[in-house]
Specification:
about 200 residues, alpha/beta, Maf protein, 7-stranded mixed β-sheet, about 30% helix, about 25% strand
Length: about 200
């Protein structure tokens, strides 16, 4: 099971259910195992505090379950008009999100937290900006025909048919996916035991 990992392993624990974060770490060449944290996430309040607190909550859960391990956690939100746009709870809401973001620029914030085996935690909030294309109902129909928006903040994925909805972006592309590979690589590169 995902939450029954080898507690003595030198591989990193990615405490996240996100397949996109696993894809990013795999692409970097990091040795990792996945555990899904059982944490109630904050969904209201200041977006920066929200992603930072959620990443740290997940990290605390993982450190308690896998002491002495490297632990990486993250939380991502889309921010539009100064409010968090989370994962949609229904297809109707997913439609609302894309209509709202159509032709507009928004921010993507990811809180990232890394604990070393001693339990020391470093954290950072990474921001990217995304500008959407002007979307027709037909565009949204076509997009939802090829991606599942339900597990994605803002109901879209820049990596999966992102060209259908995204006109341009600034900052880390992988951060828009849910984890800044630039930040993670800078933190982990000095630790050779974590690399394939």
């Amino acid at each position: 099971m995902q939450n029954e990992l080898n507690k003595e392993s030198s591989t990193l624990v990615l405490a996240s259910a996100s397949p996109r974060r696993s894809k990013i770490l795999t692409g970097l060449g990091v040795r990792f195992e996945v555990a899904v944290p059982d944490v109630e996430e904050i969904t209201t309040g200041d977006p920066h505090e929200t992603v930072g607190d959620n990443a740290l909550r997940k990290n605390a859960w993982a450190r308690a379950h896998f002491p002495g391990r490297w632990v990486l956690t993250a939380d991502t939100v889309v921010v539009f008009d100064s409010r968090c746009v989370e994962k949609p709870v229904s297809m109707d809401q997913a439609w609302e999100f894309l209509r709202m973001l159509s032709g507009q620029t928004h921010e993507v914030l990811t809180g990232v937290a890394l604990a070393d085996p001693s339990g020391h935690v470093r954290s950072e909030i990474v921001m990217s900006t995304v500008t959407f294309r002007e979307l027709t109902d037909a565009d949204i129909d076509a997009y939802f025909a090829v991606i599942d928006p339900m597990d994605k903040a803002g109901a879209y994925d820049v990596d999966e048919y992102g060209h259908v909805v995204v006109a341009s972006f600034k900052g880390s592309r992988s951060n828009i996916m849910g984890l800044s590979c630039e930040t993670v690589e800078a933190w982990l590169r000095p630790h050779g035991e974590l690399w394939l």
